[in-house]
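yo

u said u wanted the structure for the complex thing, so here. seqs first:
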Amino acid sequence: MKKYILGSLVAGSLIALGASASAQVKVEWWHAMGGANNDRVNKIATDFNASQSAYEIVPTNKGNYTETMTAAIAAFRAGEQPHIVQVFEVGTATMMAAKGAIVPVEKLMKDAGEPFDKSDYLPAVISYYQTPEGELLSMPFNSSTPVLWYNADALEAAGAAEPKTWDEVKVAAKKLVDNGMACGLSFGWQSWVMVENFSAWHNLEMGTKENGFAGFDTEFTFNNDAVKTRLADVATMSADKSFVYGGRRGDSLPLFTNGECGMWMNSSAYYGSMKAQAKFNFAQTMLPLDTSLASAPQNSIIGGATLWVLGGHESDEYKGVAKFMTYLSSPEVQAWWHQETGYVPITTAAYELSKKQGFYDSNPGTDTAIKQLSLNTPTPNSRGLRFGNFVQIRDVINEELEALWAGDKSASDAMDAAVERGNTLLRKFERSVK
Amino acid sequence: MLKRVHFPSSLLPYLLVAPQIIITLVFFMWPASQAIYQSFLIEDAFGLSTEFVWFENFEYLWNDKHYHAAFIRTGFFSLAVAFLSMSVALILAAYADRVIKGAMTYRTLLIWPYAVAPVLAGALWLFMFNPTIGIFPYLLKYIGYDWNHYLNGNQAMGLIIMAAAWKQVAYNFLFYLAAMQSIPKSIIEAAAIDGAGPMKRFWTLILPLVSPTTFFLLVINAVYAFFDTFGIVHAITQGGPAGSTTILVYKVFNDGFIGLDLGGSAAQSVILMILVIAMTAVQFGYFEKKVEY
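structre next:
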């Protein structure tokens, strides 16, 4: 009997301890940052928790982007959703369509009485996540944009200059191969880089209704001659290994860091990995321009993820969420995050702070992404994409591009098929959200 | 007059089977019914707007040529996996059956891959055949063969077949070995005395005598290739390149969990459910009766 009394005493005191610790309002944050970035996310949360005593942010890694999003949706359906969830940019339309499930960030800040000025944020970063009326729906967290990475040593050895146009890229690739390299150019996240950003960069429409911003009844138009011609040209480059396809997402990174490929187009956020892996001098520059389409580039569009706030929680918890959003956008936190990861800073203040700290002087080229994004005021063709089912549609584009690289289809057939299959998925999405 | 024995009805037998029934109901019947219900719906990911559409999701699949292609691909994949893993297992079992010294070690090593989770098996093979850093593409280069399963659909298919078959060899090996060891030694010895060599004995005696096992394994392997290879595909190819390794079970996942098209995905899993019921019926009804010595 004594044992039981002792046991219940211990249990009771443990419960009391737990209660005193949870006097703080807990805010759940589900994210998809793995590896070193996971530690950085934890650091942000710990620092925020230490900076005040009313709220406690609890970050949880839920796997990759798709897994995190699916987990949050499943949790929502079960009524167990977190307060904040990190969703990648292609999930935007799905999240946005779920009107009853999300709390727009702008509304959240207003309701909580937190100071919030949209003009502090970089237009190219937040335009992706605004309603057509301009309301900001989710808070940008980790944003990047594709750039052209190159092996400076290899280019110099081959006698090629830093390429600025597609013609120069082709010349440089040829020179690299002639100089004994296994491949001239490769790229990853090909739908994002070669179709989505290629279109935005040359101010071309990818779909009707302002790339889907103006309505879910949008249709794809990226099977235009400009895109087809460029892709057909890249496909011919594979004949002499000027171009080598190395897989989806970042699978082709080793091709570049091993020194097999001299040029690589992919996210600016690979900076950290390259610094760790590449044993040569590498540099980044802006995406190449197709001079037959435009005399100057427009601006590139972002990728990466934002933080969405989910509905169904208590109002004092949302106060904590709002406080955290303010903390997250502060210049110090943003500048630190930007310099550590290679993601772009989301506010002008953080960019200025990084400049003042001399980060770009000691790491030349690291401001390429932000320069690309803020090159011009975004047009309806370059502020972003809002297509439903876009995760699947990207897979369709990937599949059709792979058929092109493998020589099974012409660029024209591949893009026509991608548009046709993509439109079917758009119609399916339109039906599901009605 | 016949004497009827009456057992007083008791609660006990029901209680004894209850755990099994409950498990079946909770983990099999209930999810299955949910899948069937979901397959009649078109719904957004969050479940905020739902439309009951009867068989429209099935109609869509019926007209979708990519789904047809996935069907044919899955058929080829499972036949290839079954054939490869069973023939390798048969050869290994035939040899293991003859081994006397160190038989246990030999057998244990052969059974080992069965304990490897599909995702890990996939990761292992991916590592060996990674076009950039893998050892096999590096060696293949010397004989002038360019390996890039990121681009070449046939190579990608070959790779998942190898990985899936490798994992299943252990299972098949166990069954074949047991079957061979249950063949009475006297039959084999009689054949040997009559002058039949090891090869002859294998083809004319052992192979026909293990044929029930072969049929059993054929169904088991087909079911395995249809339903349990998700992890391997997910780890190695994610269904690519150009959808050339998107087998049915992967498509269910891809459309449901990546594409968040729950109705379409549920419709596909209902079709798979019908398939596995049919296969099991074939196994129980047909093979058990027909294959006899």
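The mean pLDDT of chain B is 87. Residues 58-184+195-290 of chain B form a domain with the MetI-like fold fold (CATH 1.10.3720.10).
cya
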